[in-house]
C-alpha cells in the first residue's frame, strides 16, 4: 500500500500564539524578537509585506517600525511551548501515528485513509483553529519530502487560498514541482542548491528527474533519497521514537555584560537548575557537566573565552548537586576584568535514572534528594515554573532583555487572563 503523509504547519506560529490572547494584534504588522530583543524571529504576513526579513536586526528597521506602527514583542517561550503541546494533542486524534518535527510542525500518517484527503485536511485545520486558535496549513503527499513541498505550496497559495495542497494527485504534483525553486526543497541548503544549479537543476521537478546515481555523487545518499522521495517513493518513515538524548544544553546571552562573580554564579546556578529539570522530565541522569563563558566578539575591550568539564559521580539529576558542580566549574574559569556576554551549562554522559549505580553510603541521601526533587517539580508544575527555586538563583540583574514580553497566559497563575462578566 502506498504511503500517505500530511504535514501540518502552524502559520507564523509565534505571532499566532500572541494573537490568541490579544485580538488587537489581528490585521496589524507584528514581529517577535530573538533573545535580548535583537533580531526578528517571527513576522506576521503584514510585517513580511513591509519587507522585514527573518533574522533582520531591530535597529535596522526602527524607522519603519515607527512609521507603520509595528507591534514588536519579546519572545515568550513558555507560551509558545504550551501552545505547541496543545496543537500536538489536537492532532493526535486525526492519525494513528504522528511525528513532532518541530515546535510548529508535525507529520501525520494518513496511509489507508478513505474519502477525500483535502476535505479531511480542511477538517484538521478547522479543528485546530477552533480548539487552540492557531491557524495552520496542511500539505498531503505520498512522501515526507513531497508533503513539505505541498505545505509550502499551500502557504504560498499556488492553487488556491484553502490552506490545503494535495500532491497525491499526479497532475497537481507536476504543476507544483515545476514551480518550486530547488532551494525550497527540504534538505537542500545554499551550497547544495549552488551545486545543483551548475547541473541545470533549477526546480523540484528537475531534481526529481535527475539520475539518482548522479544525485548520490553530488549530494551523497541524501540526494539520492530526495530524488526518490520527489518521485513519490517514501524513503523516510515517521520518526515515532526519537533516540535518547546525548546532551542537554542551557545557554543564554546576558541582557547586559556580567562583570561580577556573584552575577555569574547566579546565572550558572539558574542554568543548572533548568538543565536538571529537563533531565528529570526525561528520567535521565548526567555523569558530567560542562560550563563555559565568553565575552562578546562584537564589543570593544579585552576578549576571553573558556570552558571546563566537571564530573558528577555517581550520575545525578539532583538540582542542588548540579548547581554545586556547575558553580565549582564556573569558579575555575572565571576571570575578573572582563565583560562576559554569554554563559551556559551542557550536560553530557546522559544515562537512564534506573541505570545509576549509587555509592552504598549515599543511598539514604539520594532517596531523600529524590523525594525533594519530586516535590519541587510537582509544585512548579502545578503553580508555574520558578514558584520554588534554589536561593542561589534569585538574582536576575544579568537576565536577558525581554522588555516587550507578553504575559505567560497559560503557565503562570498570576498572569492568567481575568474575564469580567
Strand order of the largest sheet: 5-6-1-7-8
Can you tell me the overall shape? globular
Name of the level-1 CATH class of the domain at 248-393:
Alpha Beta
Low-confidence stretches: none
Q: Span between N and C termini?
A: 55 Å
What is the percentage of strand-forming residues?
A: 15-25%
Main beta sheet: 5 strands, mixed
Number of strands: 12
CATH architecture grouping of the domain at 248-393: 2-Layer Sandwich
Helix content: 25-40%
Would you tell me which CATH topology of the domain at 248-393 applies? Dna Ligase, domain 1
CATH H-level superfamily title of the domain at 248-393: DNA polymerase, Y-family, little finger domain
Which class best fits the helix and strand makeup?
alpha+beta
N-to-C order of helices and strands? EHEEHHEHEEHEHEHHHHEHEEHEH
The helix tally amounts to 13
Mean pLDDT level: 89
C-alpha Rg (nearest Å): 24 Å
Question: What oligomeric state do the depicted chains represent?
Answer: single chain
Summarize the structure.
The protein is of the alpha+beta class and 421 residues long.
Task: Write structural notes for this entry.
- The structure is a single chain.
- By secondary structure, the chain is α+β, with helices and mostly antiparallel strands.
- Among the domains are: 112-231, DNA polymerase, domain 1; 248-393, 2-Layer Sandwich (Dna Ligase, domain 1), CATH 3.30.1490.
- Helix content is 39%, strand content 20%.
- The protein contains 13 helices and 12 strands.
- The protein has helices at residues 13-21, 45-49, 62-67, 77-91, 117-132, 144-156, 170-179, 190-198, 204-208, 212-230, 261-281, 319-333, 363-383; strands at residues 5-10, 30-33, 40-43, 71-73, 98-102, 105-109, 136-141, 164-166, 248-258, 284-295, 305-316, 340-352.
- Helix 4 (77-91) crosses helix 5 and helix 11 (261-281) packs antiparallel against helix 12 (319-333).
- The longest helix has 21 residues, at 261-281.
